[in-house]
């Protein structure tokens, strides 16, 4: 039994926020309900967020993210795109998104018919590294 428990823990999916600087600045997180990917591409100077859910995202006039925790906030846009099970938004500034991810406990992405919440436990340090990457000069 003692050997079975560690094996079960190893088989469970990791739910960590992860930062990768190459080839472009990327922040990812996966839970059962959704996967989240933030990208900053120095060549276009654009940030993108992609939220993928198993149930997908039906067409909707607006997409929003609500951040709950010590620094709550709500951001909304009508400039989103839906492709398959992923809803995406790109913009030249993402300070409010990064602040929401770094300083809160959960993020709820939603449209008028679909809602998904992800936990932000452990997001602060990878978000800070993502910020540093976006500020770095192109090599």
Walk me through the structure.
There is one protein chain. The protein is of the alpha+beta class and 139 residues long. The model is unreliable at 1-14 (pLDDT under 50). The chain has helices spanning 4-11, 95-103, 124-135; strands spanning 18-20, 25-30, 35-41, 46-52, 63-68, 73-77, 81-83, 86-91, 106-110, 115-119. The chain contains 3 helices and 10 strands; from the N terminus they run H-E-E-E-E-E-E-E-E-H-E-E-H. The strands form 2 sheets. Strands 1-2-3-4-8-7 form a 6-stranded antiparallel β-sheet, with helices on one face. A 4-stranded antiparallel β-sheet has the order 6-5-9-10, with helices on one face. Helices cover 21% and strands 38% of the residues. The termini are far apart.
What strand order characterises the main sheet?
Answer: 1-2-3-4-8-7
Order of helices and strands: HEEEEEEEEHEEH
Number of strands: 10
Beta-strand percentage range: 35-45%
Overall pLDDT confidence? 89
Give me the number of helical elements: 3
Largest sheet: 6 strands, antiparallel
Structural features:
4-stranded antiparallel β-sheet; single chain; 139 residues; disordered N terminus; 38% strand; 6-stranded antiparallel β-sheet
């Amino acid at each position: 039994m003692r050997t079975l428990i560690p094996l079960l823990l190893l088989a469970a999916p990791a739910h960590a926020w992860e930062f990768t600087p190459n080839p472009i600045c990327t922040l990812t997180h996966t839970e059962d309900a959704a996967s989240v990917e933030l990208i900053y591409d120095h060549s276009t100077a654009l940030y993108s967020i992609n939220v993928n859910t198993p149930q997908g995202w039906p067409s909707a006039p607006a997409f929003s993210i609500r951040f709950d925790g010590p620094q709550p906030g709500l951001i909304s846009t009508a400039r989103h795109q839906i492709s398959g099970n992923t809803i995406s938004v790109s913009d030249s500034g993402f300070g409010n998104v990064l602040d929401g991810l770094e300083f809160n406990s959960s993020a709820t992405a939603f449209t008028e018919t679909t809602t998904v919440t992800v936990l932000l436990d452990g997001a602060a340090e990878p978000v800070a590294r993502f910020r540093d990457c976006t500020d770095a000069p192109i090599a």
